[in-house]
Design brief:
By secondary structure, the chain is an alpha+beta fold. The protein has a single domain (4-165), classed as Api92-like domains (Alpha-Beta Plaits), CATH 3.30.70.1270. It is 34% helix and 25% strand. The chain has helices at 19-32, 36-39, 49-60, 91-99, 136-139, 142-147, 151-162, 165-169, and strands spanning 4-13, 71-74, 78-86, 104-112, 117-124, 127-134. A six-stranded antiparallel beta sheet has the order 2-3-1-4-5-6, with helices on both faces. The longest helix has 14 residues, at 19-32. The protein is globular, with a radius of gyration of 23 Å. The mean pLDDT is 86.
């Protein structure tokens, strides 16, 4: 079983005249019941086997599409997708989609607890902003994350709290208490 990256992706438009772009994206995702193959379609013949696996890793930055239990929420000027991807968020697929749809901005928040990284990527026409944190549980304590009111801080803390992850991953380690023989003899027997 892979490590899953929980990811929230927001597609946003600035002007009402571009609402149809979100309508079309939402409809295609619903119709095809796929996400990444809508953003950056795989070439024909690549769907199965090693060629497809390599293509997905290189072009989506993850080995397969979003898990089936994803959610999609539509707002007036925004479409949000939340779900799990294997290994990492689909950053290359998002960048590709934004570069080919310049009237849509994309914000991606992600947290992967198994390896311990999190971050935020924003794709806007001509601008990519990245904030990636490796070993996020070592960089900040649970209390520090709970006080972090940035968009990333709230996202990470909410995910960790909602899923009981802080309690699981932040358990205090038992102090090491070596067993020392009562004898001065290394073998354990005092022959004096």
């Amino acid at each position: 079983m892979p490590n899953y990256s929980f990811t929230q992706i927001s597609f946003t438009i600035e002007y009402d005249m571009h609402k149809h772009l979100l309508d079309e994206l939402e409809e295609e995702i619903k119709t095809k019941n796929e996400f990444l193959n809508v953003l950056r379609p795989m070439p024909e013949g690549y769907t199965e086997g090693e060629m497809g696996y390599e293509w997905r890793c290189e072009n989506w930055t993850t080995k397969w599409d979003i898990r089936e239990d994803f959610t999609m929420t539509r707002y007036d000027d925004r479409l949000d997708i939340q779900g799990h991807f294997a290994w990492s968020p689909p950053l290359d697929a998002l960048q590709y989609y934004q570069e080919n749809n310049v009237n849509i901005s994309i914000d991606c928040l992600y947290v992967e607890v198994g390896v311990g990284f999190c971050g935020q990527m924003t794709y806007e026409p001509g601008l990519i902003t990245e904030n990636h944190i490796s070993k996020f549980m070592k960089v900040k304590s649970r209390d520090e994350w709970s006080r972090d009111k940035s968009e990333l801080g709230v996202f990470v803390n909410d995910y960790m709290e909602r899923n009981g992850m802080w309690d699981y991953y932040c358990q205090e380690e038992e102090p090491y208490d070596p067993i020392i023989p009562e004898s001065s003899d290394f073998g354990g027997l005092d022959t004096r």
